[in-house]
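Example record

Each entry pairs one chain with its bound ligand, iron/sulfur cluster.
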Amino acid sequence: MAKTERPSTSTSRSTKTSSTSTRTSRSTSTSTSTSTSTSTGGAGKKGEAKGRGSKEARRVRAKESLAARRERVLEIVRRLRREYPGATCSLEHADPYQLLVATILSAQCTDERVNMVTPALFRRYPSPEDLAGARPDELEEMIKSTGFFRNKTKSLLGMAGAVTERYRGRIPETMEELTALPGVGRKTANVVLGNAFHTNVGVVVDTHVGRLAQRLGLSASDDPVAIEQDLMKCVPREDWTDIAHLLIYHGRAVCRAQKPRCGDCVLNDLCPSAFKV
Ligand code: SF4
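C-alpha cells for the complex follow.
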C-alpha cells in the first residue's frame, strides 16, 4: 500500500489582537466544532480547494524574511494554543504499538471510525506478535469498515511481522527504522514518534496541515514532504508535534477546505489569505 497516513478533533472560538501581521484584520467570534476526519497525504484531496493558498499568501511568503515568518509562527502557535488547549492526537491508543496500528488504519478514514474498530482489534491482537499471527481473512473482516482493508491488512501483517522479527515486538523509535517497516511512511512515523515517543523528528502533514500551511503563507508547495520541510524551518522544534494538532483542529473548526470562516478566525490578521479563499 502506499505509504501514507494521518490523525485528530476540535473546538474553536475567537477574539483578536495582534501586532505581527501581514495585513489588516477584523474579527471577533465564537464557534465550536468537533470532528474527526483524517486523511493521508498531502495538502489537498479530492473535492477540496486546490492550490497553494491565495495569491496574496504566495506574494507575502516570497517577500517575507525567514525571521519574520518565524515571529509570525510564534504568534500563530500562541493563539492556536489558546483556542485549542486540549489539541492532541485523536486516535485512541495505550502504547506505541496501538498508535502505529491505528495510524495505519486511519489512511483515508476518519479517526472516529478507526476508534470504533481498534478496541476489539487490540483485544484480539494485544501485541505485534499476536497481530503477526492473525489470519488475513479474520483481520480483513475486523478492519473492513475503515476502507482499503485488503491493503491495510497486508500493511498490518507486514509491519507486525517485521516488528516481531527485527525488534522482538518492540516498536522502533527512529524515523529510519519506522519507515523501513511495511506500510509505514514518514507521516505515520511522525505520528508515532511525536505522540507515542514524544520526539519531535518532523511535522505530520495531513490534508488540513497542508492546506493551512499554504493559506497562512508558510509553504507554497503542494508536496507534503516539501511542506513539512518548510514548516520545520519556521516552527520551533519543540512545537513540531503540537503545530500539526493545532492546525488540524483549526482546519476542522474554522479554516475549512471549502468555506474558511475568516471572519471568525483568530489568525485573520496574521493570514495573507484571509477573506481571499
Ligand atoms: S480561516 Fe481565513 S484567516 Fe483563518 S487561517 Fe484560514 S484562510 Fe486564514
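Residues 215-216, 254-255, 260-262, 265, 267-268, 271, 273-274, 277 surround iron/sulfur cluster (CB under 6 Å).
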